[in-house]
Amino acid sequence: MVRKLATKHEQILQHIENLEVGNKISVRQIAKELLVSEGTAYRAIKDAENKGMVSTIERVGTIRIEQKKKENFEKLTYAEVVNIVDGQVLGGREGLHKTLNKFVIGAMKLEAMMRYTGAGNLLIIGNRTKAHEKALEAGAAVLITGGFDTEENVKLLADEFQLPIISTSYDTFTVATMINRAIYDQLIKKEIVFVEDILTSIERTFFIETSDNVGKWFELNDETKHSRYPVVDDSLKIQGMVTAKDVIGVDRNLSIEKVMTKNPMTVNAKTSVANCAHMMVWEGIEVLPVIDDHHRLQGIISRQDVLKALQMIQRQPQVGETIDDLITNQFMNTTEAGGSTYRCEVTPQMTNHLGTISYGVFTTLVTEASSRIMRNHKKGDLVVENITVYFIKPVQLESILEIVPKVLEVGRKFGKVDVEVYNEGKLVGKALLMAQLIDR
To answer: Where in this chain does the record put each CBS domain (predicted)?
Structure first.
């Protein structure tokens, strides 16, 4: 397991990571400093932006920002605020990388406003120059609504304190709504677990090279007691996977390339754990190699890692509610002699433009009811294979639905559920769901 020299792309990312937060970055500057082409520099900077290391702002440029930890997702940098509100930076560009902890709407008298405005805040206000000045002195950045400018002395003050003063053409209410929405979206993203959160990194991953023979598998097996290893070439690019099944009874001097499974299924760092679970269940895979954009090995993820993560997700408090949460939080369970029935009211969020229940919401109701009834039969999670909705009538706003799932068949690894949906005693929908079961 010889470590390879970093590529130019990796060297640029390392260079960007080592820059101080707040530094400006340009394609030309990176190309000149690291002796690479501008195309290579551009691609690496875009990759750094995707990884949350830099932020590009119109009329300002690309700035090194602090990478967010998961627990800090609900906080925005001033640079992100500029992007959200299509803003123009009037002063204090050096402070764009800073994180704001609260925003204050300046719709009161100056003295009262200053009682609520402090360090790390963002004051959202119109063309009140005195308030702009006082906010900066209190350690807060300023967002001026309505497309107004401010005085030169205020811009100089912003530069001195390294606190951004931003102008946007939107009104105060729209700006507050846009920022709230951005924070809310990030709260939902915070709950989603990705491969990068749980993978075994390349430094701790055991792998075999294409130049090795089958004997290498036995050496690693004695050392680690694992039975599955990725196979890579001399550039760490993934070439295959080799398991105990591949090497049993095989001559140990045979090349590993002769026995490995070529073109294995892989994932990248931004693949969701839920997606990994689906791949592993359907393909019967125990270990997935994690690769980067150039197909180089970054680490591995095992079925045990995925199951632990899925269980952790279920125990997490959901801070930002998704559409699925809004729908299923209304579920009321009534157990009767014939089995379980779930009741749910059709709210405005659940309807289409005609005011009747949307098809997507209907499938969510069917899936949730099926998941709940299957949990009564087997402790575990569902991976849905197929939903067939073969009858649905329009159901209008504020209707009370009764969802009646019936288990048709349940095996060790799969289940079939028939679901009927009623409104005021009349059948309004029928569906058949087939799913694989993941044991806890």
So the answer is: 199-258, 260-318
Q: What is the pLDDT of residues 196-218, one digit of tens each?
A: 888 888 888 899 999 999 999 99
Of the options 3.30.43.10, 3.40.50.2300, 3.40.50.10710, 3.10.129.10, the CATH number for the domain spanning 323-439: 3.10.129.10
Three-state DSSP at 273 gives helix
Looking up tokens 């700035």, which residue turns up? 63
CATH 3.40.50.2300 fits 1-65, yes or no: no
The two tokens of residue 83 are 């992007």
Quick one: which of 264, 213, 216 has its CA closest to 239? 264
Lowest-confidence pick of 6-20, 139-153, 204-218, 227-241:
6-20
Burial class (CB in 10 A: 0-12, 13-18, 19+), 136: buried
Position 231 scores a pLDDT of 95
Mark out the alpha helices in 192-330 (DSSP H runs): 195-198, 215-224, 244-247, 256-259, 273-283, 303-315, 323-328
Whole-number pLDDT of residue 59: 66
In angstroms, the Cα distances linking 435 to 218, 309, 409 are 37, 20, 11
pTM of the model: 0.53
